[in-house]
């Protein structure tokens, strides 16, 4: 009889246990979106990010282990703007998960309410390299956009888990306040270097550079996605000498050989910045990412003799 | 004009209401309120003049100089004239996002529902000597057109139409139901069967210019098991291990492998795939396959008097290594497949044979990307023939591939083949591949 009671009690308790574990299962394509989801979701969500921060987000293998993650997701957050076009579609199809298909409630395209730069006007062809016809997808590298993504996440989580809406709202305003305080710090750190000139490897930084008034005068890549050529490298060296630019910013997933030879030629410096959370071990979350990049940049400009 | 009216009304209201409240307060507060009013008035005046300037510009038929909006309201810019906003959520599954150009009038916005289209050209050349299985010196081997889109909230569709030297063929054309309950994924249409690895791959994603001897001898050649049918697959829960089981039913007509002479002569394919991440850069992919169908050995003068069948068993293994921080520069893929064929046929073809011809074949290959644009690889091939296991073909290849970009590649392959029933062949094969149109998914 006791056993029966125990089983009954256990069965009655099951729904409670299930709801206690009823966290929203969130999958994001990148660690940046994952970090923002953790900021908003707290302990009411469990977050899995597919691509690592030190990996080129254009070239990710659609591994079957990702299919497993997406198949169990309640929410799928994507960067959009065709960043994941080479690897997300097969994952979506194979996930067998109706909740996170495009158009379903669990699908969140983070690019829909942010500021997108470099949307091509006029005709575009692949002669321009691997251009993104819908604008530059590296938009998360600007805290204002991060705030808007966080808002979209708050709204999405509240829609899917209405009982926790006030919790998410609270977490958002906490994040918002911390981000605003950090932004003041970053603005002050980079203010002395406004208008400073530099070169980046890929066009990953337009939102970041625009925000802090830094002037990207060229790219190590001749065209997006096209590896450096000797001719173009000479042009970059000339431009850097002409404009007095000394700093070359490289993403962690590109080869440093060409940037280093350019730096030697112009007496400058190569610096690996994190384009994403996890891009370096210091960039543990969205705010730490900017903390790292801003401080690195300021230190480099200071070392190279200011503007 | 409406915003200006509103702004003026607000100004006037503020000017009337504020002093009355102020009258009841201390003179100090009154001064503060007065300052606020002045500030508000100044802001409204600025705003009004900006709007009036904009109005004047519009009336003059010019593009308005946009008054700089406050930071918070500055989202994605509105679509410029001649473009249309894609419905949210069309991205990700191959659909577009953002704004898209419209050609013609705005009513032609339905063009955005056109499928993603691409054409992949496959140009082959061959030099050297091969009398057993000769290829032309130069050949526009295949032009594959693809049309892919989401059908509705429940399904997507993919068409691959192959234009070869012998005509046009629907290589694949199928509907994928990816929102079925119970974790099932179903495909309906004509498709490459899930038998092993190479059979399910299109030419342009193979790491070679050709297909291995075991495919040619035992699994239906270049076209392979490619038939009209239904495929159902499901993930099997196994913790962190990826396990997928697939069952397929086909009409029973696949190149020279299966031939259906009655409606009931269906062909079947079963496939089990296991995948595991050994580390973030290394993973292993294993598969086991089985296929069954009627063959053409018993068909004499268009009548199937033999009613013979073929069983195929296969195992495959793929090992991949790709360091994530250098993923675009270096990777290694090792592949192998073994296939056993059990083919019923008339004993008279080989007097001492049992009527069951049992043949086996395999390949082992390795491909290494040693620079951003360069791949080198090798393959060893060996296979008996399905209809006569006493004939054993062997081959070896060395392959070098150059990628100018993600959308084109040039490949050279030296291939030596020892045919069991003919002179050895030494050939230099080369290939140009180029793709235009929508950006397809990277093969895995």
Question: Which SSEs are present, and which pair or pack?
Answer:
The complex is a heterodimer of chains A (307) and B (444).
Chain A: H1 2-20, E1 24-28, H2 31-41, E2 45-49, H3 64-71, E3 75-78, H4 88-94, E4 107-109, H5 143-160, H6 165-190, E5 197-200, H7 206-211, E6 215-219, H8 230-243, E7 247-250, H9 257-266, E8 269-272, H10 286-303
Parallel strand pairs in A: 1-2, 1-3, 3-4, 5-6, 5-7, 7-8
Chain B: H1 2-23, H2 27-59, E1 83-85, E2 99-101, E3 116-129, E4 138-152, E5 155-164, E6 167-177, E7 184-192, H3 213-218, E8 226-235, E9 242-250, E10 267-277, E11 282-294, E12 299-300, E13 303-304, E14 309-321, E15 331-344, E16 356-371, E17 374-384, E18 392-405, E19 408-418, E20 425-437
Antiparallel strand pairs in B: 1-2, 3-4, 3-20, 4-5, 5-6, 6-7, 7-8, 8-9, 9-10, 10-11, 11-14, 12-13, 14-15, 15-16, 16-17, 17-18, 18-19, 19-20
Helix pairs in contact in B: 1-2
Could you describe the 3D structure shown?
The complex is a heterodimer of chains A (307) and B (444). By secondary structure, chain A is of the alpha/beta class. Chain A has ten helices and eight strands. A four-stranded parallel beta sheet of chain A has the order 2-1-3-4, with helices on one face. In chain A, helix 2 crosses helix 5, helix 6 runs parallel beside helix 10 (286-303) and helix 8 runs parallel beside helix 9. The longest helix of chain A has 26 residues, at 165-190. Chain A starts with a helix and ends with a helix. The model of chain A is unreliable at 8-20 (pLDDT under 50). Helix content of chain B is 14%, strand content 46%. Chain B is built from three helices and 20 strands. Chain B has helices at 2-23, 27-59, 213-218, and strands at 83-85, 99-101, 116-129, 138-152, 155-164, 167-177, 184-192, 226-235, 242-250, 267-277, 282-294, 299-300, 303-304, 309-321, 331-344, 356-371, 374-384, 392-405, 408-418, 425-437. In chain B, the strands form three sheets. A 16-stranded antiparallel beta barrel of chain B has the order 3-4-5-6-7-8-9-10-11-14-15-16-17-18-19-20. Chain B has a two-stranded antiparallel sheet with strand order 1-2. Chain B has a two-stranded antiparallel ribbon with strand order 12-13. In chain B, a hairpin with a 4-residue loop joins strand 10 and strand 11 (282-294). In chain B, 30% of the residues are buried. Mean pLDDT of chain B is 84; it is low at 9-25 and 61-79. Classes of the chains: A alpha/beta (307), B mainly beta (444). Chains A and B meet through helix 3 and helix 4 of A and strand 10 of B.
């Amino acid at each position: 009889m006791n056993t029966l009671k125990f089983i009954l009690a256990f069965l009655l308790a099951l729904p409670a246990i299930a709801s206690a574990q009823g966290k929203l299962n969130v999958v994001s394509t990148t660690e940046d979106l994952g970090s923002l989801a953790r900021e908003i979701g707290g302990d009411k969500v469990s977050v899995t990010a597919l691509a690592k921060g030190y990996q080129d987000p254009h070239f990710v293998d659609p591994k079957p282990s990702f299919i497993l993650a997406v198949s169990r997701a309640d929410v799928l957050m994507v960067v959009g703007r065709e960043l994941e076009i080479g690897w997300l579609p097969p994952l979506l199809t194979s996930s067998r998960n109706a909740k996170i298909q495009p158009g379903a409630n669990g699908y969140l395209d983070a690019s829909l309410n942010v500021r997108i730069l470099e949307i091509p006007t006029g005709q575009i062809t692949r002669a321009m390299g691997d251009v993104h016809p819908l604008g530059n997808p590296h938009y998360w590298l600007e805290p204002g956009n991060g705030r808007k993504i966080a808002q979209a996440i708050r709204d999405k989580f509240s829609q899917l888990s209405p009982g926790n809406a006030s919790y998410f709202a609270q977490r958002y305003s906490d994040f918002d306040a911390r981000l605003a305080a950090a932004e003041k710090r970053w603005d002050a750190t980079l203010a002395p270097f406004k208008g400073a000139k530099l070169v980046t490897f890929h066009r990953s930084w337009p939102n970041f550079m625009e925000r802090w008034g830094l002037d990207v005068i060229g790219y190590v890549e001749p065209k997006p996605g096209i590896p450096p050529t000797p001719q173009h490298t000479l042009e970059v060296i000339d431009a850097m000498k002409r404009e007095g630019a000394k700093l070359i910013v490289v993403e962690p997933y590109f080869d440093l050989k060409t940037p280093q030879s350019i730096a030697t030629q112009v007496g400058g410096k190569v610096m690996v910045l994190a384009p994403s959370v996890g891009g370096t071990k210091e960039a543990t979350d969205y705010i730490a990412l900017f903390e790292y990049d801003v401080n690195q940049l300021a230190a480099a400009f200071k070392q190279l003799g200011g503007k | 004009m409406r915003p200006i009216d509103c702004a003026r009304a607000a100004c006037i209201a503020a000017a009337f209401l504020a002093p009355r409240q102020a009258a009841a307060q201390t003179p100090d507060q009154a001064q503060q309120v007065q300052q606020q009013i002045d500030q508000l008035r100044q802001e409204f005046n600025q705003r009004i003049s900006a709007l009036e300037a904009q109005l004047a510009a519009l009336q003059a038929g010019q593009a308005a100089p946009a008054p700089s909006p406050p930071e918070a309201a500055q989202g994605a810019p509105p679509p410029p004239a001649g473009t249309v906003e894609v419905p949210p959520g069309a991205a990700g599954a191959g659909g577009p996002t953002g704004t898209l150009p419209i050609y013609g009038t705005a009513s032609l916005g339905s063009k955005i529902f056109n499928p993603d289209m691409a054409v992949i050209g496959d140009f082959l050349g061959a030099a050297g000597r091969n009398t057993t299985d000769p290829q032309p010196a130069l050949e526009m081997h295949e032009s594959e057109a693809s049309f892919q889109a989401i059908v509705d909230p429940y399904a997507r569709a993919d068409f691959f139409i192959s234009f070869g030297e012998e005509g046009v063929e629907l290589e694949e054309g199928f509907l994928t139901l990816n929102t079925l309950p119970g974790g099932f994924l179903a495909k309906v249409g004509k498709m490459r069967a899930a038998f092993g690895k190479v059979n399910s791959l299109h030419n342009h994603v193979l790491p070679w210019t050709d297909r291995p001897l075991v495919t040619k001898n035992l699994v239906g050649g270049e076209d392979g098991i490619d038939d009209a049918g239904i495929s159902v697959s499901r993930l099997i829960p196994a913790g962190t291990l990826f396990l997928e089981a697939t069952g397929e039913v086909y009409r029973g007509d696949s190149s020279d492998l299966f031939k259906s002479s009655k409606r009931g002569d269906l062909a079947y394919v079963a496939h089990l795939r296991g995948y595991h991440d050994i580390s973030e850069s290394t993973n292993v992919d294993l598969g086991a396959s089985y296929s069954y169908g009627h063959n053409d050995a018993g068909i004499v003068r268009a009548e199937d008097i033999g009613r013979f069948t073929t069983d195929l068993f296969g195992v495959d293994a793929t090992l991949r290594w790709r360091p994530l921080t250098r993923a675009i520069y270096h990777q290694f893929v090792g592949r192998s497949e073994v296939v056993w064929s059990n083919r019923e046929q008339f004993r008279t073809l080989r007097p001492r044979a049992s009527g069951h011809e049992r043949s086996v074949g395999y390949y082992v290959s390795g491909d290494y990307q040693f620079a951003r644009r360069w791949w080198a690889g090798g393959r060893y091939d060996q296979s008996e023939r399905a209809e006569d296991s006493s004939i054993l073909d062997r081959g070896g290849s060395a392959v070098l591939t150059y990628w100018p970009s993600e959308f084109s590649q040039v490949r050279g392959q030296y291939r030596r083949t020892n045919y069991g029933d003919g002179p050895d062949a030494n050939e230099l094969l080369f290939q140009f591949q180029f793709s235009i149109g929508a950006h397809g998914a990277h093969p895995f």
